[in-house]
Amino acid sequence: MTDMTPLAALPGPATQGPAALSRKAKAAIIVQFILNEGADVPLSSLPDDLQAQLTQQLGAMRYVDRDTLNSVVQEFADELESVGLSFPGDMAGALTALDGKINPRTAQRLRKEAGVRQTGDPWERINKLEPERIEALVLSESTQVAAVMMSKIDVTKAAQVLAKLPGDKARRITYAVSMTSGVSPEAVDRIGLSLAAQLDAEPMKAFKVKPDERVGAILNYSNTSVREELLNGLEETDSAFAEAVRKAIFTFANIPARLNAIDVPKITRDVQADVLATAIAAAASDEERRAADFLLENLSKRMAASLREEADGKGSVKAKEGERAMNAVVGAIRDLVTAGEIELLNPDEDD
User: Does this chain's domain 121-201 share its CATH topology with 211-338?
Assistant: First the structure.
């Protein structure tokens, strides 16, 4: 036992029968026993009021004799063995258990009806947001709240968000971070919960991808003439949206500007050599030829020489066949991006 004081020196009776113990006292005995054995007890997952009650119960107790301990442990073990199936016990727990398994719209509706929020650390949710979404939150909050946000999220993401903010706003937030040393943990928790509540209150969106990215993804697989015709028409209707779509488009010709040179060898794992050679042979415009040269220059000399020889041997490639090969290369790069193996460069950002 942790209390090594001789039993004779303790006030009160040295024993207390298990029948006279409350369930709270028995729970405290089990927790203390497990802690004494050196095991971890994840009590932080309990509601705050239960954590408080358990702590108070532990503080009020002194000791129990070995017979009482054995009896309580046996009773606890018997209850565990008799349990056939356990349930979350409340709507919040049920929704957490079914997260990702039921329709998100249904989950959101049930949360609103029951008045419960998503469980877990709200800052983990906030940290998983895209920099653009965090930027919007920062702009909608006070400088002090924004400083706490910058202090809680990953430093790399915080740097991305600050880079997107107007200069004066970014400077005020950066200075405010230096004044957060006196912020209490409770205040940080309240801010996190308030921001999470804003996220919960947002209406569900039918599309996760932005409109310009969706149109760009469609035009990625259109042939060049159709793509340019549509973009020219779009510029006449909405020049700003057309510009956003152009930035979202990633074609074979965009490879030198968007693909990191060290990632070029990874493409060869998913694109057959014959397809890659066809794409290189089909390069007709200056931009496409630069893309072909970029790929060859960043492959091993042996592989590059083999692809050049195979591409030269193909001679003139039909336009449709060339488009298919180039789309296969682009598709493989996009698959690598989706899998998180590579990241495309942003040509508008400084190195």
Answer: yes
Cα–Cα dist 174/259, whole Å: 32
Supply 110's token pair: 């049930």
User: Which residues, including other chains, have CB under 8 Å from residue 186's CB and lie 6 or more apart?
Assistant: none
pLDDT at 124 over 90: no
- Average pLDDT, rounded, for the chain: 83
DSSP-derived secondary structure letter, 83: -
Tell me which CATH code domain 211-338 carries. Answer: 1.10.220.30
Q: What is the pLDDT of residues 53-86, one digit of tens each?
A: 989 998 999 888 898 989 988 988 888 888 888 7
- pLDDT above 70 covers a percentage of the chain that reads 87
**Domain spans, the chain:** 7-82, 121-201, 211-338
Give the separation between CA 179 and CA 148, rounded to whole angstroms: 10
Q: pTM for this structure?
A: 0.47
Q: Which amino acid is at 52?
A: A
- Please, which residues have CB within 8 angstroms of residue 119's CB and are 6 or more apart in sequence? 92, 93, 96
Q: How far is CA 256 from CA 210, 284, 332, 342, in A?
A: 25, 16, 15, 14
Rounded to 5, what percent of the chain is helix, strand, coil? Answer: 70, 0, 30
Whether the per-residue pLDDT at 254 is higher than 70: the answer is yes
Closest CA to 219 of 191, 201, 241: 241
Contacts of 104 (CB under 8 A, 6+ apart): 204
**How many CB atoms are located within 10 Å of the residue 34 CB?**
14
CA–CA distances in Å: residue 157 to residues 100, 132, 134: 25, 10, 9
State both tokens at 138. 């920062």
> Whole-angstrom Cα distance, residue 297 to residue 44?
55
| Structural domain 121-201, CATH architecture | Orthogonal Bundle (1.10)
282-329 pLDDT tens trace: 998 899 999 999 999 999 999 999 999 999 999 888 988 998 999 899
Q: What is d(CA 118, CA 197) in angstroms, rounded to the nearest whole number?
A: 9
